[in-house]
Design brief:
This protein is of the alpha+beta class. It has eleven helices and nine strands. The strands form two sheets. Strands 1, 2, 3, 4, 5, 6 and 7 form a seven-stranded mixed beta sheet that branches. Strands 8-9 form a two-stranded antiparallel sheet. A hairpin with a 2-residue loop joins strand 4 (about 140-145) and strand 5.
C-alpha cells in the first residue's frame, strides 16, 4: 500500500467509524441530508481522490479511490460519495473544473439518453433520466453524450431539472430527473472516453461498494456466531454455521479481488472487461453472502434495530444498479464469442 492509500485508509476508517452512527443512518433513511458528514468528507478530500492536486484534489489513482469507495460500502455511508468521485473524474477527463458539493451522474438506465443540443445561443440538455442516485441532493449532474462522433462531458445544475422522488430498497434517493432545455454550465469533449462511461464507471464503483459491504456482513456474522449461544455453546461451533461462514468468506474474498482488479484496469484506461467481470462476480457474491449472513443471524438480522439489514438492503439494491450480474455476464459472453474461443486464454493472460 502506497503512502496516499495508507492515509486514505486511516482517514476513512476513523471518520466513518465515528460519524456513521445508527442515528445518522436512520435519519438519512427518513430523508434528512447528513450535511455535517458531507462537510467532513469534503474537508478531508475524500470526494476528489482522482482530481489533480493543481485543481484541488488528491492527485491519486483509481486504486486509491478504491480505498474510499469500498470503505463507503463497508460502513453503509448514506452519501453520494462514489457518484461524486465518478462525476469529478469525468469532468477532469474533459478538462473541466470540478465544483464543490455533492455530484451525481446520469443517465444510469441502459436504454436512456440525455441529449445535448445547441439552442438559444448556448448548449442545452433535454431528456429524462430515471433512478438517478441522489438526484434530489446533488448540486450538479454530470452527463456524457455523443456529439459529432465523440463523447462530450457536460455539467448541469441539478436545479434545472424537474425532480420526481423515489428510493431504492435501502431508502437511498433514486430520483427521476426531467430536463427541458436546461442550461449547460460547462461542456467539453473527452478524448478516449467511451459513450457509456457513466454506466461503466457506475458499475465499477458499485462493485467496490458491494465488496466493502460483504466484508462488513462477514464481520457481523462471524462476531454474532461467537456471541450467540445455543445448547450450551456458541453457534459458531456448529458445523452448519462454520460451513456457511466459510462460503461467505470465500465470496467476500473473491468479490474484493474482482473489484480491486477492475480499479487497477481503470488506471490503465481499459476497464470494460474487468468491470464486467467484477459487477457480475460481486453481484453474485452479494446475493449469496447476504443470504448466509441472515441465516446465521436468524430473525434478529431482519429487524430494523440490527445493523445487518442496513448493509444487506444496500447489497440487494446495488447489485441491480448500473446493470445486474446477468446483464454483464451476457455482455461478457458475447464479447468472448465475438473474439473466438482460440483467443480467450491469450486475452486473459495479457490482462
Amino acid at each position: 500500500m502506497n503512502e496516499l492509500r495508507a492515509i486514505l485508509s486511516d482517514v476513512v476508517t476513523r471518520l466513518f467509524t465515528e460519524r456513521v452512527t445508527r442515528e445518522l443512518s436512520e435519519a438519512a433513511e427518513q430523508g434528512e441530508w447528513p450535511g455535517a458528514l458531507w462537510q467532513a468528507v469534503e474537508e478531508n478530500g475524500l470526494t476528489l481522490p482522482l482530481v489533480p492536486e493543481a485543481k484541488g484534489g488528491a492527485g491519486g489513482t483509481w486504486g486509491d479511490a478504491y480505498v474510499v469507495v469500498s470503505a463507503a460500502g463497508r460502513h453503509a455511508v448514506p452519501l453520494p460519495l462514489p457518484e461524486t468521485i465518478v462525476a469529478s473524474w469525468l469532468l477532469v477527463a474533459a478538462g473541466l473544473d470540478v465544483p464543490l458539493g455533492p455530484l451525481t451522474v446520469a443517465p444510469v438506465q441502459r436504454d436512456e439518453r440525455l441529449k445535448l443540443v445547441r439552442r438559444d445561443g448556448g448548449l442545452r440538455l433535454d431528456g429524462t433520466a430515471a433512478r438517478v442516485p441522489w438526484g434530489r441532493a446533488a448540486k450538479h449532474v454530470v452527463v456524457v453524450d455523443e456529439t459529432d462522433g465523440r463523447a462530450t462531458v457536460a455539467l448541469v445544475a441539478a436545479g434545472g431539472a424537474r425532480v420526481t422522488r423515489d428510493t431504492n430498497l435501502a431508502r437511498e434517493p433514486r430520483d427521476t430527473l426531467a430536463f427541458v432545455g436546461a442550461p449547460v454550465l460547462a461542456a467539453a469533449p473527452a478524448a478516449g472516453l467511451p459513450h457509456d462511461a457513466v454506466r461503466l464507471h457506475g458499475a465499477l464503483v458499485r462493485a467496490a461498494q458491494m465488496a466493502g459491504g460483504l466484508e462488513a456482513i462477514l464481520a457481523l456474522a462471524t462476531r454474532y456466531a461467537t456471541e450467540r449461544r445455543q445448547f450450551g455453546k456458541p453457534i459458531g461451533q456448529f458445523q452448519a454455521i462454520q460451513q456457511g461462514l466459510a462460503v461467505l468468506a470465500g465470496h467476500a474474498a473473491a468479490a474484493g479481488m474482482a473489484a480491486a482488479n477492475a480499479f487497477r484496469a481503470a488506471d490503465r484506461r481499459d476497464p470494460w472487461f474487468e468491470t464486467a467481470v467484477a459487477k457480475a462476480r460481486v453481484g453474485e457474491a452479494a446475493g449469496i453472502g447476504a443470504s448466509i449472513a441472515h441465516q446465521v443471524h436468524g430473525a434478529i438480522g431482519f429487524t430494523y434495530e440490527h445493523q445487518l439489514q442496513f448493509v444487506t438492503r444496500r447489497l440487494w439494491s446495488w447489485r441491480a444498479e448500473f446493470g445486474g450480474e446477468s446483464e454483464w455476464a451476457t455482455l461478457l459472453g458475447r464479447s468472448v464469442a465475438e473474439r473466438g474461443a482460440e483467443t480467450l486464454w491469450p486475452f486473459l493472460a495479457a490482462r
